[in-house]
Amino acid sequence: MATTFAKAAEKSAPATHAARIGHVSKSFPGPSGQQLVLDDITLDVAPGEFVTLLGASGCGKSTLLNLVAGLDSPSEGTIETPGGRPALMFQEHALFPWLTAGKNIELALRLRGVPRQERGDRAEELLDLVRLSGAYGKRVHELSGGMRQRVALARALAQDSQLLLMDEPFAALDAITRDVLHDELTRVWRETRLSVLFVTHNVREAVRLAERVVLLSSRPGRVAREWTVDIPQPRRIEDSAVAELSVEITEQLRGEIRRHGQR
User: Fold this and answer.
1) Bridge partner residues of 19 (DSSP)
2) Per-residue pLDDT tens digits for 139-173
3) Least buried of 2, 22, 81, 110, by fewest C-beta within 10 Å?
4) Is the pTM of this model over 0.85?
């Protein structure tokens, strides 16, 4: 019943996992008593691995991500993140509109304890990493939806965590912008070798991005099945191999939804 954050540097041997979720269950109070949302979830994320969590709406994907982030505690089980507290990126960009793009990133650096004289240069480096060079002084209202999500990604990276949690960060974007940001996220992940746990209900998005896709059953959420994605990167969402695996996963997802509806 605990979430543990520990710096990898404090360990004598390299961490064997970026996140370890052990027999985690989560219940919330409901009108007829405790409602079980997650049931006995066990899942490891390896260092440098990109994992997508996939499932129907209401299956507990975001709840599990919040538990890993330390925003809530499991009712049962344990969660360990040896690299320290994870960085979290939400569906909404959650940028402060009264700050510039650069100052939004600097805020995360300040909270990390980065000296004032270093923050500006580091913010510029992170903006360059997400291909927003020259946007340091722009206000939030001057940025497109895709640019705002890039700034949000740069701010998450500024937390210097080894584990990045992403809760449907591209769901509100149009298809073309989302496609571009899939490319950008893949590039950033390959350059930084961060571990990523990415929540989505979009099957093709899950297959395009991940090294491993984990399907959660409908409520209560359980690990129903996993797929290793051996398709070489970079991938396109219209690639035949992506489409083929997406069809297989979609059939499994539909089965979970049907089972839920019959109860």
Assistant:
1) 45
2) 989 998 889 989 999 999 998 899 999 999 888 88
3) 2
4) yes
Q: Distance (Å, rounded) from C-alpha 222 to C-alpha 79?
A: 16
Q: How far apart are CA 189 and CA 213, in angstroms?
A: 16
Q: Where are the beta strands (DSSP E) in the chain?
A: 2-5, 19-30, 33-45, 50-54, 76-81, 87-89, 163-167, 195-200, 212-216, 223-228
Torsion 3-9-11-15 (CA) sign: positive
Neighbours of 122 (CB within 10 A): 19
Mean pLDDT, residues 44-72: 92
The answer to whether residues 93 and 130 touch, using CB atoms and an 8 Å cutoff, is no
Do the Cβ atoms of 100 and 139 come closer than 8 Å?
yes
Look at residue 7 in the predicted model and tell me its pLDDT: 52
Q: Over pLDDT 70: what percentage of the chain? A: 93
pLDDT band at 260 (very low <50, low <70, confident <90, very high): low
Domain 2-86+163-262: CATH superfamily, name plus number:
P-loop containing nucleotide triphosphate hydrolases (3.40.50.300)
Separation of alpha carbons 123 and 117, rounded Å: 11
Radius of gyration (C-alpha) of the chain in whole angstroms: 19
Residue where the block lists tokens 């600097």? 106
Ordered by start, the domain boundaries in the chain are 2-86+163-262, 95-160
Structure tokens at 172: 């509100």
Tokens 């994870």 found at: 86
Residue 225: burial class (beta carbons within 10 Å; 0-12, 13-18, 19+): middle
The helix (run of H) or strand (run of E) holding residue 117 is: helix 116-129
Torsion of CA 66, 71, 75, 78, to 10 degrees: 80
